Amino acid sequence: MTAIDDTALKLDPEEARRVRQERLERIGRWVLPLAIMILAIWLWDRICVWNEIPQYILPRPGVVLQTLHNDAGLLFSSLLVTLRITFLSLLLAVIGGVGLAVLFAQSKWVEMSFFPFAIVLQVTPIVAIFPLINIYVNNQTVKLLLCAWIVAFFPILSNTTLGLNSVDRNLRDLFKLNGATHWQQLRYLRLPAAMPYFLGGLKIAGGLSLIGAVVAEFVAGAQGQSSGLASRIIEAGYRLNAPRLFAALILISLTGILIFLVLSLVSHLVLRRWHESALRQER
Amino acid sequence: MIQEKVASTAASGVAPMLLSLRNVGKVFSNGVTALSKVDLSIREGDFLSLLGPSGCGKSTALRLIAGLSTPTSGQLDWGGAIDRSNTGFVFQEPTLLPWASVFDNVWLPLRLKGVSRAKAEPAVMEMLSRVHLTGFENAVPRELSGGMKMRVSIARAMVTKPRILLMDEPFAALDEITRFKLNNDLLELWQDERFTVVFVTHSVFESVFLSSRVVVMAARPGRVFGELVVDAPYPRDETFRTSPDYAALCRQASDVLVNAINSTVGPHHDGH
After folding, report:
1. Nearest to B112 among A171, A173, A179 (CB)
2. Cα(A194)–Cα(A161) distance, integer angstroms
3. How many C-beta atoms lie closer than 10 Å to residue B70's C-beta?
4. In Å, how far is B75's CA from the nearest CA of chain A?
5. Residues whose CB falls within 8 Å of the CB of residue B96, separated by 6 or more in sequence, listed in order
């Protein structure tokens, strides 16, 4: 337990030291990264000033912030485009990944036959596949979605497959003893047991779908039809508009962090009552 | 092979036969003979312990009875019409669904048979009160102690009112105080309902305290070595646990067990 009312009890030096240590760690967890971040930004600003670096090479943080504000309309409408692709592809990755995993779970033979295809799809760099997709698919949105999906679905598939196959042997026997049907076993045993694995895969896939969406747009953006954040970056790069480039970059980073935090929260809420990973350490 | 019959089974010969294993053998694909020529009859209302060292096939025998595994040779004859899907099984670990509440865990066997939550509720709540867990129905397993988890496991096994309860070293991982308490509660439950119990254990003391019959098994190959009828009356409680009768019976069972262990041909292993 962390909350100790040390006015009420008399602590020996060792315990008191530990309480102090824990309190420091709790504060440090937030303050330290924040302090380092502020220090880094300040240093960035100072370097620009000390070396008189021109804005088109390295803009000062204040300028980037100003650009974020001035170009808000343009940047945020682009962010929306990127977000749409990201979330749609994540949704498809969940449907596809879980769907395939459930299919694989039906029989070892299916898994043995088709899992290698999933691996091939995963290990081939998406940038290398894209020209092919470009030939076969006309619709811009579909193109981007397909790309982001290929990048994002694998961790979900792989993790969920692992989860569906790691059910406690005794529990499996218990279901068999009670005459459970195949479907009941999936519904009441294997899917819930796979939940922590699936959520782990989802956390990875969330980040990957954003990366997939941005990379896909980068490759597709060369054709100049898209309007997501990636094309803003390319455009800004051509025009040597470094402040906007940085602003777009920061937006993408923040989006990634937000996705991760939201998925972590979801994971915590789902698992908090029963899974070891979501429980606070107790002494 | 020495067949040591300490006492005949005639004493419990009044109740109808529930199950007989006749000349049952089990050989695994890796060549290990888990069971060889096992003859065993279980009568209705028996509290039968399978006692033996590790590797004597007692768990294998239990799995055969449960229908989780099929014998290589010989056969199992069930007396009368018994619903094989209505067998209670308690594993060595509590084996609960960690994400489900105590209520949902106990409901599970009924749920799998298509009984709705509302319809199952009286049976589940009654079973929970029988194992002294009233008020814990919304807790999840991880919030419970080891002994409480095992109670949930027993409630789950009993909620379908099975005629036979199979227990595979259910209390082996518990501390002694908790184990004694669970032993007492199990006996109480058994006396009220008079179902049949097959109880696998490696503890002489536990088997004698609980059972009406102790079947001692030997290893390599796994076989029935001898049997002991525990002629002490029920209810058995803490006074029985400290009585000279109990000590004498434990000594008898222990002697048979020692002979069973010594009878094993080939290299001896201490534990595993």
Report:
1. A179
2. 8
3. 9
4. 19
5. B105, B141, B149, B152, B153, B156
Question: How far is residue B158's CA from residue A266's CA, in Å, rounded to a whole number?
Answer: 36
Residues 96-115 of B with CB under 8 A from A: 97-100, 108-109, 111-113
Residues B141, A188: C-beta atoms closer than 8 Å: no
Chain A residues touching B111 at Cβ < 8 A? 188
- Note the pTM of the prediction, 2 decimals: 0.84
Give the minimum alpha-carbon distance from B265 to chain A in angstroms, rounded to a whole number: 32
Please give the single-letter amino acid code of residue B115. Answer: V
**8 A C-beta contact, residue B48 and residue B38:** no
> Encoding tokens for residue B131?
């194992």
The residue type of B189 is L
Is B140 in the A-facing interface, judged by CB distances under 8 Å? yes
Closest CB from B66, B93, B98 relative to A177 = B66
pLDDT in tens, chain A (283 residues): 445 554 567 778 888 899 999 999 999 989 999 999 999 999 999 999 999 999 888 999 999 999 999 999 999 999 999 999 999 999 999 999 999 999 998 888 988 898 898 889 888 888 888 888 888 988 888 988 998 999 999 999 999 999 999 999 999 999 999 989 999 999 999 999 999 999 999 999 999 999 999 998 888 765 555 688 998 898 888 898 999 999 999 999 999 999 999 999 999 999 988 887 766 554 4
